[in-house]
Amino acid sequence: LVSNNQRLQPRQRNQNQKKFRSGGLENLSTELYQGMTVQEVSDGFLDELYKNKEIDAFLPDLHQNQYLVLKSLEGTNASALGRVVKDKIVLLKNNQKACTIAAKNKDQVFALDALLDDSIECVILSGNAGVGKSLLAISSALQLLEEKKYKKLIITKNMTQVGNKDEIGFL
């Protein structure tokens, strides 16, 4: 249990407890599955991937829908972005847009690809404030609405209380 809320904390002293402070859980981000990995491959592999837009996956420990940054083993600047689909690595489009919003970095390319792909039923984006999670999610949803893949869009947001913590209501 990770909480500062006294009502949620265990009553018995022998239960596992950790006092939580912002940034207080070291190494948590390195233990979580990141959804992306960097792999070094031959230039021939990259050429084949760009030529055929997909290639049989031979890299160990790959998961379905895992994103890949493929870099050259030979020291050239050759690289590619891909995703594992079934038993293949599929080349990602770097110029994919959602309602005129284009990705600015590899993480946003991965996010847009996942958000716009019908075969991925649940997408969870995490990151620091200001990296574009909400913008990409809403622009992708609007794009899918335009394409008539969905009928309506429902946006929810956590309620946060400002000011006196003893007040009951929320604005």
Describe the structure.
α3 runs parallel beside α4 (133-146). This protein has four helices and seven strands. It is globular, with a radius of gyration of 21 Å. The strands form two sheets. Strands 1-3-4-5-2 form a five-stranded mixed sheet, with helices on one face. A hairpin with a 6-residue loop joins β3 (67-72) and β4. With 171 residues, the protein is an alpha+beta fold.
> What topology, given as strand order, has the largest sheet?
1-3-4-5-2
How is the main sheet built?
5 strands, mixed
What is the H/E string?
HEHEEEEEEHH
Backbone CA Rg: 21 Å
Mean pLDDT: 80
> What's the number of extended β-strand segments?
7
Shape: globular
Helix content: 10-25%
Strand fraction: 15-25%
Count of helices? 4
- Distance from first to last alpha carbon: 30 Å
Q: Supply the helix-strand structural class.
A: alpha+beta
